[in-house]
Amino acid sequence: MANTWGYGAMTNHFGDVVENSKAIFMIGANSAVANPIGMKHFLQAKDRNNAKLIVIDPVYTKSAAKADHYLRIRTGTDVAFIYGLLHIIFKNGWEDEKFIESRVYGMEDIKAEAKKWTPEVTADVTGIPAEQIIQVATILAKTKPTTVVWALGITQHSTGTSNTRILPILQLVLGNMGKKGGGCNIIRGHDNVQGSTDMCCLADSLPGYYGLSDGSWKHFAQGWGVDYEWLKKRFYAKKWMNEKGFSLAKWWQGVLQEEKTYSSSPIRALWVQGTGITSMSQQVEIQKALNKLDLLVIAEPFVNEAAVLSDREDNIYILPVATQFENEGSVTATNRTSQWRTKVVDPLYESKTDHDVMFEFAKKFGFYDEFTRGMKMGIKDGEIKQVKNDFNFAEDASDEIARIVKTIGLGGWTAKRLKAHQENWHMFDPLTLKGRGAMKGEYYGLPWPSWDDKHPGSPILYDVDTPVNEGGMGFRNRFGLEHDGVSQLAEDSVTVKGSSIKGGYPEITSANIEKVLGIKLTDDEKQKIGKNWKTDYSGIIQEKCRIAGVAPYGNAKARVKVWTFPDPVPIHREPIHSPRTDLVKKHPTYGDQTNNFRVDVRFSSEQNAQDWAKDFPTMLVTMRVVNLSGAGMLERTSKYLSHITPEMFANIHPDLALNYGIRDGEDMWLHSPQGTKIKVKAHYNFSVTPDRISLPYNFAGVMQGVDLSHKYPEGTKPYATGESSNTITNYGFDIITQIPEFNAGLCRIEKA
Ligand SMILES: Nc1nc2c(c(=O)[nH]1)N[C@H]1C(S)=C(S)[C@@H](COP(=O)(O)OP(=O)(O)OC[C@H]3O[C@@H](n4cnc5c(=O)[nH]c(N)nc54)[C@H](O)[C@@H]3O)O[C@H]1N2
Ligand SMILES: Nc1nc2c(c(=O)[nH]1)N[C@H]1C(S)=C(S)[C@@H](COP(=O)(O)OP(=O)(O)OC[C@H]3O[C@@H](n4cnc5c(=O)[nH]c(N)nc54)[C@H](O)[C@@H]3O)O[C@H]1N2
Ligand SMILES: [Mo]
Is the pTM value of this prediction over 0.90? Predict the structure, then answer.
């Protein structure tokens, strides 16, 4: 299973922040530790533009230490906080009325919700003093442009989806979207996580966010050169083609709760490739599931600690996989740019590259030919067909992606262009991304959308002041032409610079192209053109749009009201395990879910099962340490990196620790609502207040006080092992994405 966390991408880019941002609103991110290079750009913006850095975090982090304004928020109350800001902005008429009027749909509902969140009410819910809320709202209104930066402190909540929606809404209200120095800059996680997100290594989508509809499958069948009927036969029954699979967060339920899964079969085998497993919450359940499986295969450069966690002695295999240095291909950065990466050495010892492992698998199971045919395809005379009998990895894989993925505009990402960018780094300006010399007219890494192989890439999304052919565009027309009788297209005043069409326009299809663009297609073109811009292999739609200065995906309004979501506009809901029992009644979580990613998920039944705050009075936040990453296996095998944090710990305020008679450096037990516990060292620390503790999530190898050292194959035990924080991160998952509620939970402390 591959892993993709966090949502979205940067709308802008780091160089843009350095050059243009006047304020940086960092919420739920600790870039000083998690993205030090990104942080350097924020500090440069402070130096160059006197940009104000505002940090909102439940913990006084290293990023907070650099902030002009630090606001200590209670975990899981960001929606309430942003409504508190919006309340003041609307009350004073500080919103960008023209922007909202012409480019946004549904803002009245946001206004109505914001009315409720006076500074006093917001202060009570979030723990941030009212004066600070007013002060920051004033800064945002007076300081344009502000960029909003977030990461995992925002997403890892049962309300993660609402959190990630309310922040762009704030930027739309302020008119900061599609502007230099503005936008939403979501600082993505590990190496190439943006690439794996765009490839949708997920249980509910085909690559490029195509979803699981028949239309999507047919588009891919065509691009892969295989029969749709053949694809259908890969499934136990047709209906599973269109249904979400099990998710990485909850696969264990698919093993353990046979009678309660909504699948044709419980999970019996697990194939792990590129994720640590101990990085997921509910480790005790995961351990049980690992033991119950019929087969566990791990394809890894290291001894993945899933193998150590499991008690099984049979039917467990570790396949040695090469690292990124022994491999080649394109990777995607957090600002939607692609970069070609060359191999440093051939795969060492008996290890194989990830794709070779998959090719071997496909051979064994008899579908190698179909699996690799997409790389032999090409466009000839405006039609997609097999054009050669052999393929060359990774070039042909990149070209296959460029051919198929139209949704986010990867058309321009051919191996040839990406390699040219890599070979000509010196010809690009690091701040504007603009190319010089032979690279003139292109942006470094061709930030998507790069609609076709003549398009230079789009460094700033939704910028209507830049022509489409230089990276400009409006908002995407994705949800129909009208809703509740209101047009979803941008108003007439929003004409993308250089466009032949005045104002908004719909997404381009074969049916509307002549009318919308005011052109005539030839009979030959009419025959070859695909149904719409997302599925048109002929390239006719992209080409005609380029000539007209039109974005194939339309020029529409951003919608702040999502009528198909459980909360059409975001509303504050208390975390499932809330420290404020008194607020749970007023701001309850969602109802329980049945059959989401094939399993049931508890929301209200869990929240109301008992008065959690009474028995588990301390809030729990998880975090990263600079010397370890992810599940931590990579760095804990390094002597020097391990030495910085040789054992698992929790940051705890002395006033809290001393309530339990715990001294600095002593062991303590942390108990979770689900009845699990971990034993960790208490580190006295003033970054946390006495109502909360913070702990790193990069350890494994100890389970509820039991040392698993003996389970590592000889010579493979890392220099540092420790309890995984995910043994006690609380039960709870986002209503839409199922990301675990790593960042809002409760625990009980006990001296060990
Ligand atoms: N409590 C808590 N838990 C969290 C988080 C949190 O904030 N708090 N954060 C979550 C987030 S955002 C993430 S992204 C996850 C990260 O957690 P994981 O996905 O577990 O991240 P890594 O530890 O980087 O795991 C990658 C695994 O892939 C292996 N690997 C490295 N390179 C290669 C390669 O080229 N090929 C193959 N096949 N394998 C390779 C590594 O050895 C490692 O075992 O953790 C999540 N878990
Ligand atoms: N050294 C190192 N670098 C890494 C990683 C690593 O493991 N080690 N992992 C990489 C990955 S996969 C990712 S996804 C990124 C993550 O990058 P970040 O998200 O920047 O890293 P975190 O340390 O998880 O920071 C999240 C911050 O959110 C705060 N927070 C928690 N709950 C809330 C809340 O309810 N509201 C608000 N406003 N804030 C909250 C936490 O206190 C914490 O400071 O880092 C990447 N970089
Ligand atoms: Mo991540």
Answer: yes
